[in-house]
């Protein structure tokens, strides 16, 4: 049987690392694009590293950047993947206000560069684009595949472009190109500047006596937070359908940052969150997305995808992991949930 080849942009990110684990277990040959950095930037995939000198290895890393057209063209033509999972992006909404041009170059034009490379290659490559619930912005919840977009940041504007250019290349050139409109998904591998991880990490540091306070922005914003490994399965399923389409992936529940604080501080045994939290206006955004709640009924019906982990369980999983990272003893309810709900889990517990 022919081994399937996947190319992942953003392989060193939260989602890229889980997807690599998932596809390797599905016997794929996995190629990932990594950026040159002055320090190692592969910590999320180090447990998957394979010595390039050994036979039979199935994970290959290539230097590249989404802003470099020639590099993207060359990699697509050299690797000839069956599937491309395009996850690479400047993914921080607040940062996109500081670096709008770079964000658009990477997130919008980066997507175009890959689609052009696929088109020019003439190969029957399937393409998954990581679109985002941020595209809905101001539109009233619940948001589904038919909800109009009203982006509220340079990041969201760039993702709207990436969404439409993906659709266009599907319609104009017959490319199997799909958008996954994923709502926020989190976990122990989440970047430490996103709010959930910033909170779980700070709580562990407070417990360990390293820090006393956490500085945050808007506590009233509400998000539909799910557990990242489950969302990776949806990405895969989207590319295994008979026809290329776009899908919303979400839990259907929404909670405020304040609720996340309440739940997390309580679970960590620290009691009320108020004494530990200060508001720092630096973290406010020039325009905010107030409420996101996803309606993932299409994914449930057509992909058979449904999330098992909901808000409270997610909080516990993240706190347990950050406690463990600092050598603290977690209460373990998060770990227990994972064992019960995913007896055959495919990802490494952090
Ligand atoms: P992440 O952890 O921030 O990872 C982003 C990845 O993109 C990293 O591997 C990063 O490389 C890479 N990257 C950034 N700029 C690049 C460039 N110019 N060229 C090549 N690679 C570049 O993001 P994530 O949470 O895994 O999200 C994956 C994708 O889904 C992103 O496109 C994000 O916008 C989208 N999304 C995420 C969520 C969510 O809740 N997580 C929801 C909806 C959509 P370095 O490691 O070198 O920085
Ligand atoms: O954790 P966040 O930075 O995630 P945000 O902006 O929702 O974006 C994430 O999810 C998107 C999907 O909807 C992805 F497309 C995107 O790539 C990224 O993964 O902020 C969540 C909320 C915001 O309303 C923010 O204003 O938390 C609020 N918040 C309050 N204090 C904070 C902070 N956010 C951050 N990052 N840091 C704070 O101190």
From TrEMBL:
Swiss-Prot/TrEMBL cofactor(s): NADP(+)
Lyase as UniProt keyword: yes
SUPFAM superfamilies listed in its UniProt record: NAD(P)-binding Rossmann-fold domains (SSF51735)
GO biological process, one term: 'de novo' GDP-L-fucose biosynthetic process
Keyword Signal: no
UniProt cross-references to Gene3D superfamilies, sorted A to Z: NAD(P)-binding Rossmann-like Domain, UDP-galactose 4-epimerase, domain 1
Name the UniProt record assigns to this protein: GDP-mannose 4,6-dehydratase
Organism: Candidatus Nealsonbacteria bacterium CG08_land_8_20_14_0_20_36_22
